Amino acid sequence: MTTENAQSSQMKFDNVASSNDQVKAFLSALQLSDSFLPIGSFTRSYGLESFIQEDVVTDVTELAEVLTSYITHQVGPCDMVAIHSAYNAAENQDFDRLAEVDQYFYSVQLNREFRENSIDSGKKLLDLIVETTNTENLDRLQDMVKNDIMMGNYPIVLGIVTYEMGLSPRDACLIHSHSFLTGLLGAAQRLMQLSHTDIQALIHDIKKIIKESWEMNKHKQIEDIQSFVPFVDIMSMEHENADLRLFRS
């Protein structure tokens, strides 16, 4: 085989390998964003239950306003920043920074239910991925959580998991945003008896908000993290003390 033919064969092999990696990463993204993932997100309403019980949200238009507020003021400047920062720490093998990101995220969660759910989902995701894959970094992260060196909030775990799966920081943030959106809309469909067409129309409309939130927050560091959704916080606090609840949060 000539040198030219050998180089051509190697290029074809590299392209196939790269394509296979992309396919694997894409399938991993689908896995992580699927409601079938057993981390308990389908049992949560993210405070929406209180909005509906108090007649604050009575139709699709009002629901869209709440969703936009969530994405713009919580998911974007808080969750996405935490995910991206955790991803960067994982990429640099900086576990001290990872623990710092975890603490920063926890400190801006005002609601007890949100804090507890974040840690619960994070631990479930971590345990699941450790059990089904073989990566030294995730084993180390699990040890840190078990030894109370860090709490293991869901966005932080998702950041390192997506890094290990070959996804990008943008992929990680979009996965989380989509999962949050579909989880909340799943609760809305059961609480408000919305049609499947209504749900799909909302998903289509909110995609633009998610993209804008990523663009606005993709360059921020964990020190810039913020969450300002006071009405959501109030509704969620009311949910904590409600006598009758369909969802955990």
* Helix vs. strand class: mainly alpha
Name the CATH architecture: Orthogonal Bundle
Give the amount of beta strand, in percent. Answer: under 5%
Measure the end-to-end span.
Answer: 65 Å
Q: What's the level 1 CATH class?
A: Mainly Alpha
How many discrete domains?
1
Rg from C-alpha positions?
20 Å
Fourth CATH level, the homologous superfamily: Urease accessory protein UreF
Helical segment count: 10
Overall 3D shape: globular
Q: Considering DSSP H and I runs of 4 or more, what fraction of the residues is helical? A: over 70%
Mean residue pLDDT: 86
Biggest sheet statistics: none
Q: Remind me, CATH topology?
A: Urease accessory protein UreF
Describe the structure.
- The chain has 249 residues and is mainly α.
- The protein has a single domain, classed as Urease accessory protein UreF (Orthogonal Bundle).
- Helix content is 73%, strand content 0%.
- The protein has helices at 3-33, 48-53, 60-91, 95-107, 112-132, 136-146, 154-164, 169-192, 196-217, 230-240.
- Helix 1 (3-33) runs parallel beside helix 8, helix 5 runs parallel beside helix 7 (154-164) and helix 7 crosses helix 8 (169-192).
- The longest helix has 32 residues, at 60-91.
- It is globular, with a radius of gyration of 20 Å.
- 39% of the residues are buried.
- Residues 9-17 have low confidence and may be disordered.
Kindly list the characteristics that best describe this protein:
249 residues, mainly alpha, Urease accessory protein UreF, 10 helices, globular
